[in-house]
Fold each of these.
Amino acid sequence: MDFKIIIVIVLCFILANSVLALKPTFIDPINPGGGGGISGFEAMLIKIMSWLWPISIVVAVLMIIVGAYYFIFSGGDPTKVATAKKVVTYALLGLVILASAIGIWNLVKLILGV
């Protein structure tokens, strides 16, 4: 693998781990706790995002495994090797975008004081 790709992967996991290590503070969407709480739409959005992030991480890791499977069983065929590289590249790109989205999400919450 190229050295730049390895650096990007390591930085992705460092960023994702530091962001995921933050303790989430979610307000109950059914009873937001009176005035000053999160509105129903925001609570619903937080709940959806708290489900989507772990699922998308699992899907990206599975796609990396599928790409590795394609690469192992390509038999040296250049088109199959290219397909395997594309699958792994797009899965890693998805992880980078996901880690960035998590970081931006928490940064906006920090700035807005939510």
Amino acid sequence: MDRETKGQGRREGLVRPVRLVIGDKLLAELVGIAVEARPEEACGILVGRLEDGVARVDETPRSANRAADPRVAFELDPGAWVAAEDAVRGRGLTVLGFWHTHPRGSAEPSDMDLAHALPGMWNLVVDARGGHHAWLQPH
């Protein structure tokens, strides 16, 4: 089964998909990472395909969390983003956005999550209880 989340926006002048679809297996893997990483937040990249107005997540590579205090925040390693862009080139995939975990509490995005989300990119928050919340950050 796939999970869908709705959102909207533009990136590089192109209309972005209005739905993010991630399979139950990938979502369960992210929940497992959330549990394993406690008490710290884990983070990574959403890699997939853009098809017919849908962003389909195929891979969720993990990145080091470079935040000063990873128990309350995340900062994606910029090198991981560059590596992901290089890895998907020629495979028909693209970097759709980013994911991170909330080791305590719900998957609802915090004020900091919303303030630091990159315009035009999907964001997925997963909590250790299996909750998840995704949004496409507007420009």
